[in-house]
Prior knowledge:
Elements: H1 2-11, H2 17-24, H3 28-40, H4 53-56, E1 61-69, H5 78-85, E2 90-95, E3 102-108, H6 111-122, E4 128-135, E5 141-142, E6 145-146
Antiparallel strand pairs: 1-3, 1-4, 2-3, 5-6
Helix pairs in contact: 2-3
Amino acid sequence: xxxxxxxxxxxxxxxxxxxxxxxxxxxxxxxxxxxxxxxxxxxxxxxxxxxxxxxxxxxxxxxxxxxxxxxxxxxxxxxxxxxxxxxxxxxxxxxxxxxxxxxxxxxxxxxxxxxxxxxxxxxxxxxxxxxxxxxxxxxxxxxxxxxxxxxxxxxxxxx
Length: 159
């Protein structure tokens, strides 16, 4: 039941527990208890709202920053990642494979604000060897949700 609940709430965290219980064929109390248990266990880490900031008329710049670091003895990448994710500007930090070690995502109001963060805070850390900043220009799909308007079929119907 856990996996089914997680699958449904991952797509729609606002789904009504009664509706979810009907879909799963169980009692609503069982669903509520399972959700609460998964929250306590840290399986469910939070509930977020996906916002299309362009449509809201709010200027935001999102950057994906690849970071190459020197791992610390006995702690690997964990301590460096912790220093980075403790900055309030940082949305996420991932350990990745490839030419870089960490992927850091953050949002700012301007390109300059992001660049300032990278040069003043991120690159200034002793363990950081190099960074590569990629700015998101347009979101087509985010967290499984299509963000771009669907293209209209403008072909002329032939009989």
